[in-house]
Each structure stands twice: as C-alpha cells, then as structure tokens.
Design a protein that fits this description.
Two copies of one chain form a homodimer. Chain A contains ten helices and ten strands. By secondary structure, chain A is α/β, with parallel strands linked by helices. Chains A, B: It comes from Aequorivita xiaoshiensis.
Chain lengths: 242, 242
C-alpha cells in the first residue's frame, strides 16, 4: 500500500526544490535500486509490484496502477524506491577531479558520472547552475555510479582559488591534448553544452587544452561535452598510469 | 500551404518503412536544415512559419498549427524540411572505418556519427539491425555531420570477409588499448549497448581491445558505446597522426 501523502511526496521529488527540502530522491527499476542499496545508500521506502522483492519492513506491495502514479518513466518499471540523499564529505585536493561549468543536460551529466566511475575519479565538482545529480533522469542513467562518485555543487571561482592542483580547461583554441605532458593529479574543467567554459572561469585556469579535429573537411562543429570528457579522462589516465 | 497528402507523407516518414519506400527523410529547425542544404543534400520541400526563410519555389509558408502537425518534436521548431536520402558510394577499404554491430539507441548513433565527423572517419558500416541513420532523432542529433559521413547498412560477416584492413573489436577482455601499437588504417567494431559484439562477429576479428578501468572500486559496469567509441577514435588518431 502507498498512502496519498507518500504519493504526493514522491511525485514532488521530480523537482529539485522538494528534493532539497526533504533530502530524498527517487530511483526506479530493480537493477538501479539494487545497485544503490549495495553501495550503501539509505533506503526509505520501496514500492514494488513483485511480491518476491519484499524482504524488509519498509518494502511495500502495490498494484500496477499505484506504481504508475509514482513513476517518472514513460513506461513504469516494476518498482520505485525513495532514498536519502547521502551527505558528501568536503572537497579534497587529491587525485583527478572533474569540474563542470553549467552542464545542463541530464543525459550528459549521467554519462560523465559513469565515466568518472570507470576512470576512478572520486569527485565531481559542479557549478550551482549544473543540472542536479538527483534529477530522476540522471539517477536512471548512472545507476550505481552515482553512489561511487561524490558530486559537489559549489562556487567554481571559490573552488578554483583554493585548489592546490594544476587546472586544465577544455576549449576550441587550447594546446593539443595529445602533445601535452599531463600530470597524475589535476583539475579538468568542462564547459556548458552551447557556450563552453565561461570567461570568468577560463581566466582562472592554468592551461587550455583542445582535442584536435582530423580529416579534410574539418567542418564538424564540436564534440558533445560527454564524449569530450571521455577523451580527456582517457588521455590523463593513459598518460600517467601506464 | 501544406496539402493533406504532404502532411500524411511527412508524418509517415517517422517510420523506416516509409523512408525506404519514398527515399525521403525529415529534418527540423533552421540550423539543422541549413547545415544539410550546405552539405548538398537535396531539399524536396521546406515548410516554415518564418516568411524571411522563403527564398525558393519549394519553400512554403505555414501557420504554427500546420507546422505542429508535421513536427516529430515535443516542441515544434519554426521549420520542417523533407530531404532526399542521398545515394551512398560503395564501401571502400581505406582510412579508418567504424563498424556498428546492432547499436539500437538513436542518441548513441547520432553521437557516433558526430565523432566520426570530428575524427575524419568518412564511412560508418552498420549491421542491418542497427538503428536507421535517417530516424528523426538521429537526424536532429547529428546535424551536418550526417551529410559528411557515409553510413552503410550491410551484412557485417560479408563486409569483414572482404575487407583488406586489420580489424579490431571493443570488448571487456581484450588487450589494453593504451599499450597497443595501432595502425593508421583499420576497421574498429563497436557492439550492442547491452550485449557487446556478437560472437559470430567477434570470431572474425583480428584483435580484441579494452579500455582499462581505473581506481580501487572497479565496480563501474561498462562504458556507454558512444563514449567508448570516442576513446577508441581518440587513441587510433593520436597514435598514428602525431
């Protein structure tokens, strides 16, 4: 059973405002939910149409109609769960850190979180106008990776002033990333989908880097921010850990 | 004005069956449409709500209501165009070729076409069960890149039997891509989102390659096929063209 007030709360969690107020977020589908539980994210409630999934007091059996009301997906899955947003530790100046300046698309953020997880990047620092990582689309796209990468939202100028690491920015007119000697520990800044890194932030960085375009035509307009992040992480990791 | 039969034809083009029958595909929005025209794709009709865009006989002014009927997008843009699907030249055995084995997601195919364009890959060879490149979602995602990369749909076993180039496949248990000496000209095969490269195809390839995972946890499940393609193209290009 799911109460009216629970339904109201859960549907409200589609909006960041209510996630911030309540400290909860929603995940859907047995695979994503199991990954988050395995990673130690605290489960508040689980609602499922599958009796066999009910193994604890805060698990509830619901019918398909009730589940559909809770779901954010076009085609509802078999379960919906409410989790507590974990508290982040403070930002550290170690390892490789990815910084996002106003990345707006949930799919891009989700892909970047998965990339961080793959390449052992433990923290992602986002400007306050970057899309929220507990947005349902991000949660569904990242699965367990969201629990393994600490995502911080903060003032980027302040973060960049305080970091002791070398800072790099991805842009169209920097040094060729393939020719640079890249350090093991660094801060890599990726910019907004349409406008790249803002001027204020770019002026604070130690070095601009560019992925060169190949071929005759050279009319390709730009790389997507997620694919550019993939190539940056691949270059930093292969340069330093071989 | 847009006739009833035109409306019917255009909305039918959302389905591959009708694109194959008619040889037409649809693009939306002034930016995408201008890119395709600039690249020499033959325009059949343009429908727009913007009088200033009407500069030829096959351009038609329509009202917003009529445009909305033609549009595949949730929020219709200001213009919808019908283009002729260009005839491909035959597949060549030169340069770097990307091969897709059953990639199903239009967003992934769109991102891969943009990557091919960026890295000067002129042909993309797809299994017949790969998503159609004239699917409206792919067209919107790739913009002009779709006109600069020749996308072929063919039998992969037949293509691989006939190619004279060295063939590589992306998988989870291959050689470390960062340690391999990679040739300038090659065939790179990327697999399906959930299942990777099929066994039949994998057995035909010269070498398996893997992007190594980093970090302590190593629990990241896999990389998305588009981000893996980004890293593969980056590695082949940076290894051979420096």
């Amino acid at each position: 059973m799911v109460s009216k007030s629970q339904t109201k709360l859960i549907t409200s969690l589609q909006q960041k405002k209510y996630r911030d107020q309540t400290g909860f977020f929603v995940a859907e589908g047995p695979k994503v939910i199991a990954e988050l539980i395995n990673e130690g994210i605290e489960l508040q409630w689980l609602f499922t149409v599958d009796q066999s999934e009910i193994v604890a007091e805060n698990h509830f059996l619901v019918d398909e109609k009730a589940l559909k009301k809770l779901s954010f997906l076009k085609t509802a899955n078999t379960s919906v769960a409410v989790f507590k947003i974990p508290k982040n530790e403070s930002i550290k100046s170690i390892g490789l850190t990815v910084v996002l300046d106003a990345v707006r698309d949930p799919g891009n953020l989700g892909t970047i979180i998965r990339l961080c997880d793959w390449f052992g990047v433990q923290q992602l620092v986002c400007s306050k106008d970057t899309v929220d990582c507990y947005n349902p689309k991000v949660v569904q796209a990242t699965m367990g990776s969201l629990a393994r990468v600490a995502v911080h939202y903060t003032s980027l100028p302040q973060f960049l002033q305080n970091t002791t690491q070398k800072t790099y920015g991805a842009c169209m007119d920097g040094n060729n990333i393939y020719s640079e000697e890249l350090p093991k520990d660094a801060v890599i800044v990726m910019g907004n989908e349409a406008n790249g890194i803002s001027e204020e932030i770019m002026n604070m960085l130690n070095q601009k880097l560019t992925i060169p375009r190949y071929g005759e035509a050279q009319r390709a307009e730009s790389l997507n921010v997620a694919t550019a992040t993939a190539i940056f992480l691949s270059e930093f990791r292969s340069a330093t850990e071989m």
